[in-house]
Amino acid sequence: MTRLKNNLLIISALLACNYCTAQQTATTKKVGIMNQKQETTDLLKSIETGAAGPVAVINPDKYKQHNQAVADGLAGFGALLQALPKGSAKVNTVRVFQDGDYVFTQTDYNFFGPKIGFDIFRFEEGKIVEHWDNLQEKPAQPNPSGHTMTDGPATVTDPGKKEANKALVKSFVEDILVNGRMDRLAGYFDGDNYIQHNPQIPDKLSGLGKALADMARQGITMKYNTIHKVLGEGNFVLVVSEGDLAGKHSAFYDLFRVENGKIAEHWDVIETILPQNESKNSNGKFNF
């Protein structure tokens, strides 16, 4: 009996030890993610403040740049900052998310003029090694429903539904924006309930349909050709796509908020893609 009790005590101790180790690993992982989000936010803010410390999160030996207006490497990033008129930059990061090695943000900038931007950073061994972004001029007025390009909820919910939400949103972009299967449109929404932050489009699914019809009547075409990346955290999903808007080769960054398995809200940024011979680096706008 004594031997049995001793064995049970040993087993209990081992189980407790394994549980503690698992909890410590989970806590360490969570802290690491929070740190990378904060490091990314601090790096962006340093564009405004000029602080040198946050730049240390960039790996100077591997940093690859996909912004076509910026030269490759850490030197390109530094040259961009030097080109900014002194005291002109303003940076307010409104949303920050993480999906694995990728941290992605939505930011209200004054960056060579007022702009709204999405930035994506890839981490490797705790350092940033790659950057993509999309920037659009910030409109002076809200959209027809009174929304700006950045207002609305920013808190992540439903962390366990990330993959399901990514699959839903990717399917929506493929069906509707790439393949034009408009007969499937209503299935992605909760009736007419839909909040829109695009500068030209009002709320509700009916508002989206009317705006697309108005664009068609004006001869303004919008065509998505390729989905390059889908990133998500909880109820938020970012889709990076390539296509054409009004005859211009364009990059589309679309952020969606999902609620109860339906698309509930949308933010976006659209940027014209430069010809490769006008780009300051050879990495391409996408190439994830």
UniProtKB/TrEMBL annotation:
Residues 1-22 form the signal peptide. It holds the Pfam family SnoaL_2. It comes from the Bacteria. Residues 170-266 form the SnoaL-like domain. Keywords: Signal. This is Nuclear transport factor 2 family protein. It comes from Mucilaginibacter angelicae.
